[in-house]
Amino acid sequence: MKKSLFRIFIPRKSFLGFSVFLASLLLLWTAPATALVVKWQKDLPTYTNGNIALGPDNSLYLSIQTGADYSVDILYRITPDGSTANTYTPLGGMVDDIAIGADGTIYIHAARNPSKLIALTPDLNEKWSVPFEDGFVSPAIGHDGTIYTASSHSELQNNEHRLIALNPSDGSQKWTCVFSNMPGALVSKPMIAPDGTIYMVFSEYYYHGGTSDVTKKIFAIRSNGIVKWEASFSNRVKLYMMGVASDGTLYILDWIDIPNWSQARRVKAIDPDDGSVKWDLQLNPVGHPHSNVAIGPDDTIYISANDHTSNSNLLLFVRPDGTIKKTIPLPAMAEGGPVMGADRTIYLFCADDYLRAIDSHTGSQKWEYYLPTIGRNYHPVISPDGTIYLGNSHLNHTKLYAIESNASPCLDCVWASYRGNNRRTGEGAKSALTPRLITPQNFQEISVQNAANAIFQWKPMGGNPSYRIEISDIPSFPVTISGNFNSNTVPINLVSSLPIENFEYFWRVKALTPDALYSPYRSFVYGDKTQMIRPIIKSPTYDAVLKSPVHLEWEHQGATNYRVLILTEPVWRPDTVVHDQILSDTHLDKVFTTYRTYYMAVHSNIANSEWSIPYKFKVISGN
C-alpha cells in the first residue's frame, strides 16, 4: 500500500487535522453597517405597471398607467441622476414587464389593437415592431440575443399556444413551437436555463371553482424550437415558475386558490433532463411563497413567504436538495425581493416600508432603512455604482427612490433577482454554470486493474470551455490532486495519481471561465470495497441540514460490528461526545437536540480499520 500524501495534512487516526480545517469554515464573515443616503426621489403620475428594469448604461425603465380608465401606458427612461430623459407611449397599452437586451434594446408588448412586440432604442425610439393575432406575454431574451415570446390565451384555433423565437435585429421569426390541445390554459412568461433550454408553464391563472379540463403542463424546449420533454400535473393548482438553478433545475410555485390559505403550498424542483419532480417542499404551515426567488452562486434558494393564518412573515434559505437551511422571521411581508448582492447580502423591500439587508451567511439583519411609501412595493434593483433603486405605487401615484449604498450586483448568481437579473430577461446567468457529473457516481468502485485508464465524465457546457477536475480524500477538498482538460470525458491514471488503494475519494469539476463554480462532489472507491481501511458514510451527506430524527447509514464490506461516534465539535473529548455505541447494523435512527451542529464518524472491527471521515451535519427542527 502506498503512503498517503494527505496524511501530512489530515491525520486519519484523529480529528485534529480536520478540526483545524473545519474551524476555518466556521468563521462567519460580518460586514460593517452601511450608511444609507437617499440620492433622490421622484414622483410620477398614476400606477406603475410592472417592475423597474436597468439598462446597460444604468438608466431606469418603467411603465405607468394613466388616463381615466388606466388604459394608456407611458414608458419612462430615467437617468441615474433622477431626471426623465425620454418617454414612449405605445398604442393599446403594455404587457407588464420590460426586457432589455445586452445592447440596450428595450422590448415591450403592446397589448391591444393589435397585440405586437416592439423593439426600442435605449432613448425610446422605435426600431421595429411585429404584430400578433392574439395576446402575448412579456418577452424573455436568450444568451445569444434571441427574443422569446408566447401566446397568453388559449382562445386560438384548436386550443393552441405558440412559443416564437425572433431575431433581435429585425423581429423576423427564427422558429415557432406549437402546443396543441391546451384547453383552458394560460401561459407563464418564458424562462431560460443556462444551457439555453426554454421553460414554459401552462395552467389556470385563476381558480375555476371545480373546473377539471384546464391544461396543467410544463414544457422544456431546446433553443432550436424542438420540445425536449413535457410534464403534466393532475392537481388543480396554480403553477408559476420562480427561478432556474445553475444545473438547469426549474423551481415552480405550486399552490391552491388565494381564499383557501389552509391548503398546501409547495415549491417543486423540476429535473432539467426529463421533467420529473426532484423534490417537493411542503411550506404549509411555514408560509405562502411569493412568485419570486433569488438563487445564490452555491444554488441556495432564497424565498420570501408569509403565513396568512398566523400573520407571520419569513425569509427561507433552501438548499438545492430541498431541505430548509434557515428560516428567518421578518417584521413584515417582503413585497419586493429577495435580491442578492455581490457580497451575498439579501435585500428585501417590505410592506412596513423598510428596506432590509440580510446576511446570507448568518441570517442576521445587517441594517434596515425606512422609506415612506404609498402602496405596493416593487423589486429592488442594484446598480453597478452601488445605488439601490426602489419603486412603489398606488392607484394615482408612483414613487421612485435612489439609495446610495456600498452594494453591488451579484454577477456570479445564476438567478439574482426578479426575472433573473436587472435587465429582467428571464434567463439564468451563463457565467454561473456548474458541470453535471455523470461518472463515476457515488460509491462506484474503480478496480485497480481498470484504474490506469479510469474514465471521468460530465455533461459538456456551452462555449466548449476547458475544465478543471479535482480529486481529494476529504469532501471539503482542503488538499487535492488536480488537472486541466479540454474535454468533458477524461481518462485518468489513478495508479500514478492516488496514494492509497482500497480507499474512498471525492471528485468535482468546474469550467475554466470567469466566475465559474465547482460542481457538487461525487465519491468513488479506488480499489476493492472489501479491502477498504475505513468505512463509507452514506447518510447524511457532508454538511447536510436535517430534521430530527436523523437517519444515519454507513458501509464497510466484511465488517460485523461498528463503533458510531457523534460529537458536538470536530474534536474528540469526553465533553463533546453525545453518542458512542457499538452496533452490528449499518444504520441508526436517532433523535437529536435541534438547532445544533454535529459530527459523525464510524470505525469497524476489520483489522487495521481507520476512522471514517468525520461528516458534519446540522439538525434544525423535529418532524
Question: What does the secondary structure layout of this molecule look like, with pairings?
Answer:
Layout: H1 16-25, E1 37-45, E2 47-48, E3 53-54, E4 60-66, E5 72-78, E6 84-88, E7 99-100, E8 106-110, E9 115-120, E10 126-132, E11 140-141, E12 147-150, E13 161-166, E14 173-179, E15 186-187, E16 191-192, E17 198-203, E18 217-221, E19 227-232, E20 238-244, E21 250-255, E22 265-270, E23 277-282, E24 288-295, E25 301-307, E26 312-318, E27 324-330, E28 334-340, E29 345-350, E30 354-359, E31 365-370, E32 376-377, E33 381-382, E34 388-394, E35 397-404, E36 437-439, E37 444-446, E38 454-458, E39 467-472, E40 481-485, E41 489-492, H2 494-497, E42 503-511, E43 522-526, E44 536-539, E45 544-548, E46 550-555, E47 562-567, E48 577-583, E49 587-590, E50 596-604, E51 615-622
Parallel strand pairs: 37-43, 45-51
Antiparallel strand pairs: 1-35, 2-4, 3-4, 4-5, 5-6, 7-8, 8-9, 9-10, 11-12, 12-13, 13-14, 15-17, 16-17, 17-18, 18-19, 20-21, 21-22, 22-23, 24-25, 25-26, 26-27, 28-29, 29-30, 30-31, 32-34, 33-34, 34-35, 36-38, 38-41, 39-40, 39-42, 42-43, 44-46, 46-49, 47-48, 47-50, 50-51
Features:
single chain, 623 residues, mainly beta, Immunoglobulin-like, five-stranded antiparallel beta sheet, 2 helices, disordered N terminus
